[in-house]
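Working notes for the structural subgroup meeting. M.R. asked for a predicted model of this chain before we commit to crystallization trials. I am recording the input and output together here so anyone reviewing the notebook later can reproduce the run.

Input as submitted:
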Amino acid sequence: MLVVVRNPGRLWGLTPALACLAGLLIPGPSCNQTGSCQGRKIPCNCNSSDVCTGDTPPRTRVLNPASRTPEMAVGSLGGCTGTLVGPRHVLTAAHCVAGGFDGDTFTYTPRFAAALDGDDAPHGNVSARRVFVPEGYLQGSCGWSDLARPAEWDFALIELEHEVDAEPLAYRYLEHDELQGREIVNTGYPNAGGCAPEMWVDNSMWQSTTTFPSDQTYWREGLMYTANLGSPGHSGSSLYTKDPATGESVIVGIYIGPFCHEDCRGLSATAVRMGPTPIAYLDAWKHEEPDRPCCEAWVGGPPATTP
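Returned structure, recorded in token form:
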């Protein structure tokens, strides 16, 4: 497996998170990687199609998402899903965009269509201006939590060319006892084939709802495991719930791939948890803090500076 990454930006071969999603193991004893680097319970070769017939809640299609909150914040990135977390900022998975880094230049133009519903794109297809991905993801570094999984860095922020007139969704860290037993919702844009819903149509939004597991085996600081049903296309989509203090919907995780047990059944989703480290990164990127963490790249190259 070739994993050669730049500093500050270019990737060659597969990134660690992409390799995990392909069912491959990445060597990394310094990260305590037993099993796979997504932190699954045991080594296995399960993928989305293995878990799509397991004991998971069914997905239902979301119709007219532009008129619904918080669904209006969810949008398609053309192969992945993102969520508005500010008027012009989109939260997604790093593995959806990291391949575009070439130093401080981003080599293609991601586009975000909020509340896309078949042929109806009520907010258009807005081009990205800049993309932020943690250096830890690009370097395949150990994660930031007790598990130290590289996949804990699998989050990214996209800055759009202009604001989107839809209500964004907040992200927040909730303690385990605040999450226990709470309803967890995942909303995304599955791709055709594989584990796509039976009534799938192009550019359709689908949603599954479950409860946060009571089994403390799956209570981790850096990753979340739930029974939400995701499949290719859901990568980067948010897992959200109601904040017990305010009652508002808040993002608590970012879907990055499947989870499996010995029999490829049971909990079916792995997500990066919205913990203190991802939140600190996202806040610094959104607010243009001078000492914000690496790394960022501009679509088409950085803007010219005035002498």
